[in-house]
């Protein structure tokens, strides 16, 4: 993770959209060292110590009428109750405003980036994306079993679902998006990171032999089928959510101050 040249093998290739002129493709940044979700507009940074780890929270300015569903205080409170060993070295969280084309072509609640390019450094990061609440989203009804489970999760989070002939149409509220991103997405991405720590680890070694051994584990991790990794992260998030609910830690009212 400390080696930026290994962070994304598709940078600058057609797999990242580079060289494609269709106006509905996501625009590739002018800085080819970056991926589109690393390109930020105006932002502020807050630093907080959570369980003896230094965290940077990067809050990108949102478009008019849009706000981030989770506050920094929400995330600090949640992370203070997750075992610190599960996110060792993960000390960057981005609250990001996606571009309009990204909202259409690649909408996500959040993502884990194993090496995020921020202010000329590289960090593991969780990115949570702002949602335009005025625009409903829709999912085709031709879904796989795992995708149907996600439909049920969204309903449980409080998203209003309307069933049409071909689609599940969701109307989103700030509270429902917060439920999804705070209690599920954040824990899901920590689950991915925990698996990475278990199978790869942070220490790349001090000798060439130790580094080569680490590199083999790194490469092997990214060969794991995505469904297997998703199953691990979903299971982790479900267990952690149930544990925190049992302890009375979640759910909690939105926090504006630490």
Care to give the gist of this entry?
It is built from 6 helices and 8 strands. It has 258 residues and is an alpha/beta fold.
Strand elements, count: 8
How do the SSEs run, as a string of H and E?
Answer: EEHEHEEEHEEHHH
Q: How many separate helices?
A: 6
End-to-end gap: 30 Å
Biggest sheet, in brief?
A: 5 strands, mixed
Oligomerization category of the chains in this entry: single chain
Radius of gyration: 19 Å
Q: How are the strands of the largest sheet arranged?
A: 1-2-3-5-4
Structural class: alpha/beta
Strand content: 15-25%
Q: What is the 3D form?
A: globular
> Could you estimate the helical fraction of the residues in percent?
25-40%
Low-confidence runs (pLDDT<50, min 5 residues)?
8-24
Domain count: the total is 1
| pLDDT averaged residue by residue | 88
Report on the architecture of this protein.
The protein is 34% helix and 20% strand. It is α/β, with parallel strands linked by helices. It has one domain (4-136, 172-246). The strands form 2 sheets. The protein has a 5-stranded mixed sheet with strand order 1-2-3-5-4. The longest helix is centred in the C-terminal third of the chain and has 26 residues, at 174-199. The radius of gyration is 19 Å and the shape is globular. The two termini are 30 Å apart.
Keywords:
single chain, 258 residues, alpha/beta, five-stranded mixed beta sheet, three-stranded antiparallel beta sheet, 6 helices
